[in-house]
Amino acid sequence: MTDPTPSADPVDVLLDVLALGETGARTSEDIFTASSHPMPGGRIFGGQVLGQAVVASARTLPPDRSPHSLHGYFLRPGDVHKPLTFAVDRIHDGRSFSRRRIQAFQEGEPIFSGIASFQDDDPGLEHQLTMPEVPGPEGLPGPSDRVHGRPEASLLLRANPIEVRHVDSDIYLSVDRPQPRQAVWTRLRRPIGDDPMLHRAAIAYITDFTIQESVMRAHGVPWATPGIRTASLDHAIWWHRPGRADEWMLYVQESPSSRGGRGLAQGQLYSRDGALLATVAQEIMLRVPETGASRTP
User: Which of 53, 130, 170, 177 could form a disulfide with 166, with the two C-beta atoms 3.0–4.6 Å apart?
Assistant: First the structure.
């Protein structure tokens, strides 16, 4: 975050950006306004836009119809210093399902476009993958323990609303063992109440953090690599079961392929008691000096 201050509660900052404004304006779409929290380099964090898209689309539906999937493209880098406008198109309302198209704009230019699907809580067949057995989060080091010699990085991580503990060593400064997979424990840093829609939006926010690392870890590329360039290209999330973003979740991540400056990452998010809460897929741009010239997508 730009000029982060340890005294500011990072979760309060997150809740502020998820509290979208309503102007009352509506043409064929519902219009909402939003701001951004600071980020390094002034680019909007993709997870923020995902969370805001969930909130905006949910505002057009009754509270008992919850999002079960969101598929979106990041079209342009967003600027944290400029206001955001969200336009929601009510493209379909059925007996059990609703679909909403969400677009985020800055200065009239779309920076994100996605479609979210909502469903009533219906009965049906049920199964899930079993959560892998890994050490719990309590005995794992936090990121500040690893980057204490780099004050800027340590301050940035402490000012983040998301808490992360890697099951294996993190990749902030180096990669101990290159492999296309990792697992992290993650949660918001403090409770945020009991609103299930807010938790789904916060989970969407969290899913964009660390998912890129399975691609980077596969090639032994740490975040500290000089000249590294990364950007989220698209993102899909399927919510399977209700969960709490402010309690520990295990985020299991794997990258099946990378090529042409792009890498695909997939993830499963489990509650502490083993319930599969969500499945995630994201393709990223990843460029390092050894594999080609950097350029913005």
Answer: 170
